[in-house]
Amino acid sequence: MDFALTEEQRMAQDLFRAFAEKEVAPLAEHTDRAEEPPMGLLRKAAAEGFLGATLPEEYGGAGMDMLTYTLLAENLARHCLSTAVMLGIHTMLSAMTILDGGTSAQKQACLPRMAGGELGTFALTEPEAGSDPGSIQTTAVRENGHYRLDGVKTWVTNAGLAGVHVVVALTEPGARHKGLSAFIVDAGTPGLTLGQREPTLGLRGMDIRPIYFENCRVPAENLLGQLNGGWSLVLRAFGRVRLSLAAAGLGAAEGALDLGIKFAVERRQFGVPIGQKQAIQNYVADCAVDIEALRRLVQYTAWLADTGQDYGASSSMAKYLAGRVARDAANKMLQVHGGYGFSDEYAISRFHRDVRALRLLGGSDEIQRYAVARGLFDAHGLQIQP
């Protein structure tokens, strides 16, 4: 099986790397310290076509395949995981779900705006519905040509910046997953209220906050996909975003390793660079091996997606592995830094904080492991539960 990049993909990779080094890297520390989303950077990313990365050109997108997109996520995350995750939520969860389930009118109304820089969200999680979306309590009731939304969504990435919200609500009480529907809700719709931004351990460049719906009336034509057909949209969105997060984890692990190697070359103890010490060499080698293993799984999953095959299980594996690899790389490279790694003056501390989120975003490690195990047990006729 040949995973060599095409000439076009290599050119795209060079573009992504140059953009990340020129535009993302210089802002990464400021973004973290100021706890401000890099809006100027996002406008530049939109101008490059990155906010419509996988959208068709007819909607203002760049028409990238999934493998090319993973190269983008990887290169952004190598310098700033916040930026890569913001882009992934906007693209893979919000915009691509509208492309997946939207009518022609919905796509024409939303996607060019989103490709042009208007951010999107994916409002699924609730206070009592995290790993169990079947417990969603936000309701959407049909009334006189509208749906009335009432409820609370939590941990909504891009919430305070977005112009378009994709909201999953219950349209058939008691039916759990089979009673979920998705809706397009424009920012500023009466009855939609933004909560306070969440203070977070890492990913401080992201705008994450709750959204409250109280008598929020959405036109009936904003139903996305089929009534009570929201769960299938959610599942496909999960597959996409988990691949995106896996690629971002790959980039973050590479970035951490870069920092560790640079420090080990420059830092001297006992008269020599600490990179001369076998303990440091072992850390570097272990990280390099794990990174290459993760790269192949990301590439394989993207290949499955691009060839129209089922990649749900593979994306769960890749996302789970990425959280582990990124965590281990950041932890070992912080150890390479010694006491300096414990100081926020060194970028490795930011990486250490940021990568922790990869074990939670897009479904926790425990849910990924369950998803993988479920597929294996299904093949033997045993149905398991989380």
Strand content: 5-15%
Q: What is the CATH topology classification name of the largest domain?
A: Butyryl-CoA Dehydrogenase, subunit A, domain 3
CATH homolog superfamily of the largest domain: Butyryl-CoA Dehydrogenase, subunit A, domain 3
Figure out the total of helices: 10
Number of domains: 3
Instruction: Give the CA-based shape.
Output: globular
Strand arrangement in the largest pleated sheet: 1-4-5-8
Helix content estimate: 40-55%
Which structural category do the helix and sheet elements fall into?
alpha+beta
Largest sheet: 4 strands, mixed
CATH architecture of the largest domain: Up-down Bundle
Number of strand elements: 10
Name the poorly predicted regions: none
Please identify the top-level CATH class of the largest domain. Mainly Alpha
Nearest-integer average pLDDT: 97
The arrangement of helices and strands along the chain is HHHHHEEEEEEEEHEEHHHH
User: What distance separates the N and C termini?
Assistant: 35 Å
- What integer value in Å does the Rg equal? 21 Å
Description of the structure:
The protein has 386 residues and is an alpha+beta fold. It has 3 domains: 7-115, Butyryl-Coa Dehydrogenase, subunit A, domain 1 (Orthogonal Bundle), CATH 1.10.540.10; 120-229, Butyryl-CoA Dehydrogenase, subunit A, domain 2 (Beta Barrel), CATH 2.40.110; 232-378, Up-down Bundle (Butyryl-CoA Dehydrogenase, subunit A, domain 3), CATH 1.20.140. It has 10 helices and 10 strands. The chain has helices at 7-34, 39-47, 66-77, 81-101, 104-115, 230-266, 278-306, 312-337, 347-355, 365-378, and strands at 120-123, 139-143, 146-157, 164-170, 180-186, 192-194, 208-219, 223-224, 268-269, 272-273. The strands form 3 sheets. Strands 1-4-5-8 form a 4-stranded mixed β-sheet, covered by helices on one side. A 4-stranded antiparallel β-sheet has the order 2-3-7-6, with no helix packed on it. Strand 9 (268-269) and strand 10 form a beta hairpin. The two termini are 35 Å apart.
